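Can anyone check this?
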Amino acid sequence: MRWLATVFTIQVLASLVEAAIMNITDTRGIEGNRYDKAHYLPDSHSFDPRDGWEPVNISNLNYKYSASSHKDHSFHRALRRSSQGNAPASIGTSKYKEKNAKTSSTSTSTGVLGKVIQSLATIFAGLVGKGSSQGVTITWYTGHDLENPSCWSNGNWSPTDQSYVGAVTLEGWTTKPECFDFIELCNGEKLCIFVRIVDTCAGCAKGSRHVDLTRTAFGKLANLDEGVLTVQMRSATEPDNWDLALWGPQTTKS
């Protein structure tokens, strides 16, 4: 009977360890290696300015910055046409229902110890937001603007509308993410995505904190009709399993 009590004690301790580990994760709602879905932050998370969260107001959206060797994305051309016709772009606020994400339990044939080890690996591997955050403006682009992303010199790969990539302001944003960096973008506490930076946006105002996203990536954070949105951005770790369609070819930096 003593050995049964020992086994029971080990199982209880393993469950407590796993629960404690799950409570310290920064993000939840990522199922397996599916990074093509929005995830959400813990219920206890709040956007406290002391943690680096920073609100930013959208202004000066009628960009007049000229594109030279870099692409001038279609959304920004539309903004300039709107400016010439004295019809300012409208920015609405949409309400979104919270998405319930299912978390799957892990188990291995090696018993309780194997389960604890696998739980640790699941938590600390893959894409996770890190560091302080800053407010950024996001828009979306499509069509020919997706072609020949500037972070590659050979032009052998281009994203699709379904990729999870973005372009950042060409000039003046001194702390912007660099080529091939991964970032986490959050619209409130309940809608967050990870994207990889693969391009520059000459149509984004010089010095602005602006991330231009693919249709699908933007659509996970807001309705495409909204067009322009202010969200929070922070750095992210590297993914554990690579997806060429989502992020493009791996590089020495990635």
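Reply from J.R.: I decoded it. The first helix runs from residue 2 to 23.
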